[in-house]
Amino acid sequence: MSVKIEDLTVTFRNGVTAVNHVNLNITNGIYGLLGENGAGKTTLMRVLTTVLKPASGKVSLDGILYQEGNYEKIQRKIGYLPQEIDLYSSLTVRECLEYMGDLSGIDKEICRKRIDYYLEKTSLAAHQKKKMKQLSGGMKRRAGLVQALLNEPDFLIIDEPTTGLDPEERIHIRNLLVDFSENRTVLFSTHVVEDLATTCSRLAVMKKGSFLYAGSVRELIEKANGHTWLCSVADERQVRELEKQYPITSKQYLDGTLQVKLLSESKPPIGCTQTSTSLEDAYIYLMNQNQ
Ligand SMILES: Nc1ncnc2c1ncn2[C@@H]1O[C@H](COP(=O)(O)OP(=O)(O)O)[C@@H](O)[C@H]1O
Ligand SMILES: [Mg+2]
């Protein structure tokens, strides 16, 4: 499974260019799409689901070009969990999924078997008789995931599945995505760096409609390697001074002393040692280089 995006631009009627001359190749496994709110993640995903037509550029899925006449064929290969999912609130989980399967034209018997299978995989089987409106945020997201999997898609597009969830639910969803990425391509958007550190090996970082980076998680971290410093500081006043000069990625009291982690090309002129770089440090480093 491979998705190829070439020089893609999306401009809305109000003149906003949400995706600006973007190039990307996505292959098997989980691919992370990281970026602050308004970066263009949802817009890019909506193009990939065929919901939105680009102003210019070329997109293909396994060599099938996104163009009139191919949309149905493409849609059959895609599962989509939108950022805002509005499942039928007064139906039960089961009824809702059966209805969605029906709308997608999936054979009833096959659909029932898949619902059983994926409800089990998402730990929702015990809740299938609950009404959609009775589910917690995390359960709703999991039901949305089952909906996206009903046509057994090769390409799963998941828009911010972990937003607003508690830590346990987030981990649950992330682990499910890893399970579902076996033999599939999963495009997983988030504005939370931590979500990607544990799930994907490749990612694209998006800002104002463009990619600041696209490649492996390891290489992104390597970019900031050697520029991450752990400094002992005297007090809050000194922290504020440092903040004017360097991006600070963490601040904590360790054994009674205040320690800050900051990003700097060279060693700052205070007591500090080089320290390991996390994906979050590397992300902040990249964002600061591209202000
Ligand atoms: N339907 C639309 N009409 C006009 N502008 C839009 C529309 N959808 C999104 N935008 C704008 O496009 C930009 C990117 O939005 P979006 O793709 O939702 O970003 P993200 O998902 O990264 O938060 C934002 O400036 C947003 O306001
Ligand atoms: Mg979005």
Automatic annotation (TrEMBL):
Gene Ontology MF terms: ATP binding; ATP hydrolysis activity
Domain of life the protein comes from: Bacteria
SMART domains recorded: AAA
InterPro entries per record: AAA+_ATPase, ABC_transporter-like_ATP-bd, ABC_transporter-like_CS, P-loop_NTPase
Domain ABC transporter: 3-233
Keyword field: ATP-binding, Nucleotide-binding, Transport
Family as reported in the entry's similarity comment: Belongs to the ABC transporter superfamily.
PANTHER family: ABC TRANSPORTER, ATP-BINDING PROTEIN
Stated name of the protein: ATP-binding cassette domain-containing protein
UniProt organism field: Diplocloster agilis
